[in-house]
Amino acid sequence: MRRKIILDVDTGIDDSLALLYLLASAEAELLGIAATAGNVPAAQVAANTLALLDLAQAPPIEVALGASEPLAIPLRTTEDTHGPQGLGYAELPVTARELSARSAARMWVDLVRAHPGAVTGLCTGPLTNLALALRIEPELPVLLDRLVIMGGAFNHPGNTTPTNEWNIHVDPEAAKEVFDAFSAAPADRRPIVCALDITETIEMRPAHLVALAEAAGSTPLEHVAATDTPDWRSCASNPIIAYLTDAVRFYFDFHQHYDLGYLAHMHDPFAAAVTLDPGLARTRPATVDVELAGTITRATTVADWAGMWGREPNADIVIGTDPAVFFDRLVTRVGALARRLYPEQP
Ligand code: RIB
Ligand code: CA
Asked: In terms of Cα–Cα distance, which of 181, 71, 65 is closest to 126?
């Protein structure tokens, strides 16, 4: 049976791989995509997402524009991480696809009401629009079948401040409203949280791009390296491989610049893989709350693993996975999609 999914993104390089992963997976039925401001402004997120649907020759899928600002603070974007348009060095043609007439929050509410107990939500960006949807429909946690969140850091340093992670950093008020809303959720409906503790073990490297190209039958095989200049662009014969090479190379350069190695943490496609197969992840229940008042700790996610606060768990935090299993699925699925859509001409 196909899994109905609402995807909420801030596309974003790794968001784009999450979208391609879902489009490459027969068991995923994408009901709608919410464009949330984060890596880049919401309108750019929407434009990137629509263009990626064209690249993937996807059927019509609703893309709904989210709020232009977080709930309580001005928007902060991160073009230095994801590139001026949000897709690294890649540039995609402008699409004829149009935005939905309804807002992202309204789309969330309408879709979960239309499919009670049957939809999985996957959030790979700030939680602004999910929080707005919860304000409209407080029953959303039980109307959803499951929620998967890429966000937070627990027993692990932050990637935006010493203690907080980007998606929470952008809109901590929204994150707190979301975790609080799930405080009464039954155990089998607690959000599965893919935090930096795990997603920073999902290290994509140039060899993975070569493997994707081989799986797609794309030529030539391109071995990108830190010595490549910013103006270099892929000549891959397969348009999806060319996109991935130009997008992910920017992410490699970013991680290299911050002494993390010539690699890229694939936060969002890992969360997408867990959405389709929760068995990929080992989880542990905890009560999660978000610091809002701290001067140096604001937007930090805190996990109470031992019930010290006397509150029921509201999250299943991923505490283990096998990155190699994930990458095997990513290469197999996205490589096959690329080969199927753009077969090599004899
Ligand atoms: O901290 C990593 C997360 O922030 C990822 O979802 C990335 O796309 C950015 O949104
Ligand atoms: Ca993201």
From this structure: 71
